[in-house]
Amino acid sequence: MHQSAPVAACDFVVFGGTGDLAFRKLLPALYLRDRDGQLTPDTRIVSVSRAGLSDEDYRDKVHAEVRAFLPPGTFDADAWAAFRERLYHRELDVTNLAAYQDLAKVLVGGEDRVRAFYLSCAPKLFGPVSRNLHEAGLITEKSRVVLEKPIGTDLASARRINDEVGAVFHEHQIYRIDHYLGKETVQNLLVLRFANMLFEPLWRSGSIDHVQITVAEDLGVGGRGGYYDDAGALRDMVQNHLLQLLCLVAMEPPASVDADAVRDEKLKVLQALRPTGPGDVVRGQYRSGAVSGAAVAGYTEELGGPSSTETFVALRVGIDNWRWAGVPFYLRTGKRLDRRSSEIVVQFRPVPHSIFGADGPPLSANRLVLRLQPDEGVRLHLMTKEPGPGGYRARGASLNLQFSETFKTRTPDAYERLLMDIVRGNPTLFMRRDEVEAAWTWTEPILAAWAADAVGPKPYAAGSSGPAAAIALIERDGRTWHEEEST
Ligand code: NAP
Question: Per UniProt, where does NADP(+) bind (predicted)?
């Protein structure tokens, strides 16, 4: 089916419809899908929060808040006017069961439609909301519940949330969102790996030297310091996004793209992750510095108090199976780094022998770079002959597939794809319970080691590439972090 074919009629109920995520991501994505004709005319979007807003107030607020987050050139007055009419707001405290009657009134008549309860609120509310939806009789056969990250702060709390939500929703109704999986390049990883003969035979330790996954942000924590300080980079980024990316790179070919076929393979990777050793993890925290020439404060200054929370983490990860034995996966993520860039680098091994002889040109090994942001695309580095007579002057060059250039189309935001998958009932790009719990099982010993370590995170200057120890982590193995190149 074409991705912008209309989806079934749906009532989206956004718990936290006045929050940052709703205004920045969910409502822009729904507007764009509506503008492109994917939502049926009777689809409704019902926001829930404690704010005393009428439907009209909410429509005005969405207009004021959301326009700034729409991609350039996508605002269309007629499309917006139609979208505005879909919006409703109900004032209710989600912990108060009696108040759900008000929500029930607006949903009346929609019992046969898909009902998507999007929990864009604090994870501690996931259990109470689920229970109250059940008690209020609002969970229909076609209902789905969408859980935003983080699913817990450790294995026990993740299990508790999963138990509470699982007590009233079946697993197939639960959509644990990891928006990285909705990114075009990430889905393209599946197409590159499994729709081309070229890569799969080489996708293993015999041909691949190592893999790097980097998610670098140049922003600091800003106004989200309260949330972030309880989480840190390991919980906020590695346990979910980076491990999910690692799974898609490392998993065995699933038999199909069916949700369980893919998720079974990802789970096997998580279960094969080797526990990290003492030298395998570096945590850091930014100090003041300069980003793009502007002076910026350090983490604790932004936070307004002391903290040992990490804003950077780099790891060397092993996967104990036949395919990946001996191939390290280097992961790193951090805030206030020198650039905003996310990429997966698959570094192939050098050719076993140069036929050009000892005096011939130096040969660099092939490298496949998948850019997640900015400029989603794929780059394959090859050796090629420099044109001209006489001798073999070989030079590295790259095949560059930049999606915006190649397809001459706007790259949709991950949430656009994921929200439509929820209505379609396709959970392939969402995390299953056992995946989330396996990821916590692997992450927990790192958290425990940090809790017992009085030294704390290593400092790094804002605007740098992270602490020196992260560079040493990979250089100890005779390798270097991939930096952006011009070829
Ligand atoms: P936020 O800006 O603090 O918004 C929270 C929303 O929940 C508000 O609409 C708030 O409205 C509502 N709410 C809070 N308590 C409520 C209650 N008892 N009853 C009814 N409504 C209540 O948070 P956010 O940044 O949008 O994040 C939402 C969720 O997404 C969190 O789990 C967060 O971890 C996750 N997330 C956020 C981002 C992001 O970029 N923002 C990214 C990934 C994941 P009232 O206070 O008016 O009730």
Answer: 50, 93-94, 149
Please identify, by atom number, the ligand 1 atom nearest to the C-alpha of residue 93.
19
Q: Is the CB of 307 under 6 A from ligand 1?
A: no
Q: Which of 54, 29, 347 is nearest to 202 (CA)?
A: 347
CATH for 181-419+430-475, options being 3.30.360.10, 3.40.50.2000, 3.90.1300.10, 3.30.750.24:
3.30.360.10
Per CATH, the homologous superfamily of domain 10-148 is NAD(P)-binding Rossmann-like Domain (3.40.50.720)
The reply to whether 241 belongs to the active site is: yes
**Stretch(es) of the chain classified as CATH 3.30.360.10:** 181-419+430-475
Ligand 1 touching residue 121 (CB < 6 A)? yes
Cβ contacts of 217 within 8 Å, gap of 6 or more: 333, 334, 335, 336, 337, 340
Model's pTM, two decimal places? 0.95
Q: What is the pLDDT of residues 261-291, one digit of tens each?
A: 999 999 999 999 999 998 999 999 999 999 9
**Tens digit of each residue's pLDDT (9 = 90 or more) over 186-238:** 898 999 999 999 999 999 999 999 999 999 999 999 877 788 999 999 999 99
Of the chain, the percentage scoring pLDDT greater than 90 comes to 85
From the CA of 18, give the closest atom in ligand 1: 9
Backbone angles phi, psi at 239, to 5 degrees: -60, -30
Ligand 1 pocket residue status of 49, Cβ below 6 Å: yes
Helix or strand run (H / E) with residue 230: helix 225-233
61 annotated as belonging to a binding site for a ligand = no
Is 335 annotated in some ligand binding site?
Answer: yes
Residue 187 is encoded by which pair of tokens?
A: 């889905």
